[in-house]
Amino acid sequence: MRKIIRRSTVILQNSLYNLLLPAINILLASLVIRLTSKTLWGGFVDVLVVVQFTAQVAAWGNKEYLLRGFSRQPATMPHQWQAAFYPRLLIACPLILLADAKIFIWLLGLIIAASFDVLILYRKAFFYAIRVELIAALGVAIVIVARYQTLIVDDLITFFALAAWLKVILLGYRFRDVLGFTWGGFSYFQAAFPFFLLTFSGALASRIDLYTVSLLRLDEEVAQYQVFINLMLYLQALSNFILLPYTKNVYRLTDSSIRKLSHRLFILGIFITPPAILVAWGVLWVLYDVRFSGVMMLLGGAFVLPIYAFLPLIYRLYKRNEQRVVLWVNLYGAVLNLILNIIFLPIMGITGAILSSAIIQWGMLYAYLSNLRRINHKTQ
Fold first, then answer.
1. Contacts of 79 (CB under 8 A, 6+ apart)
2. Do 271 and 144 fall within a single domain?
3. Biggest alpha carbon distance in the chain?
4. Which of 71, 318, 84, 374 is nearest to 198 (CA)?
5. Nearest to 204, CA basis, from 42, 38, 360
6. 196 domain-assigned
7. Is residue 197 part of a domain?
8. What single DSSP character describes residue 99?
9. Domain that holds residue 288
10. Residues 173 and 264 reside in one and the same domain
11. How many domains does the chain have?
């Protein structure tokens, strides 16, 4: 019984940690928009998306790669972490030539702080990580409130950079036994490349619409779309939250059982999504003073729903070692979403962005179903 309680506590803490990060971003965005303007937050988002994209590339799949390494050779865990950390850090340093000094300092802090993610997961230090995130977010919120009358984009960059380095210090202290120096050479990049492709393609597929909006639309529209799509992604994350306690069993299920699970989760999504969209509409109105049309919210629901059906299918593909299918679906989805955004954004504004993303989500569901049928047919 104690073992079950302990395992349930770990699962709950992990889920809370993963849900906390987007929730913090939602609340900080609300604070800036309410105290200043949508235009200011939109200007900051233009910088934020570039910094986060670069940090995603610099991560180079280290979390997934190292988790596999830790499970195979736990005794050498500190050396594995160091061997993956220093080459990535060295490659990131020349970015100072391309970026403003403050942006580079912020980016470097994000890269280092994200390097501890694998240790948080491996050592199940979720409660400590939750406290670190809350402390950093509270610090940013306090200075925003204190300086809101004269706040500019440069100030927000400074505050978020300081928060990133505060997390580096606190996480570095928690995992100080892992710190040290082991040079593993640049072979890490080749070894971790498959993990990088999977994580990067997934991030690109889920964010390409925001990147395009940031490039093609005015700051106020960028702010509105960023808070909207973050809420929609948060609602998508609920599907993973629901499935998480059953993840181990999912890998043991037969194809027919996976299809039944996918069908049931999709039906559950049909019941969950409408009230969730209504709540999101209320949050956007109350927190951000943004009123989206009914069409925009309906398209948001259409964007959220498909993942309830295809999430179990992805686990099935992983079990069959068909990660390449997930990779290609993500890459094709990102490219097609970019093309549709370029077509729809000038005509429909940000409504065109969520329309594009909704179409791609349903297309990804069709692609996963088709590929699983093809794989099943080949193995029969």
1. 180, 182, 184
2. no
3. 67
4. 318
5. 360
6. no
7. no
8. S
9. 207-379
10. no
11. 2
